[in-house]
Amino acid sequence: VQLQASGGGLVQPGGSLRLSCKASDSVFSGNRMGWYRQAPGKQRELVAAIGVGGIATNFADFAKGRFTISRDNDKNTMYLQMDNLNYEDTAVYYCNRWPTRRAYWGQGTQVTVSS
Question: Which of 24, 44, 53, 78 could share a disulfide with 38, CB 3.0–4.6 Å?
Answer without folding.
Answer: 44
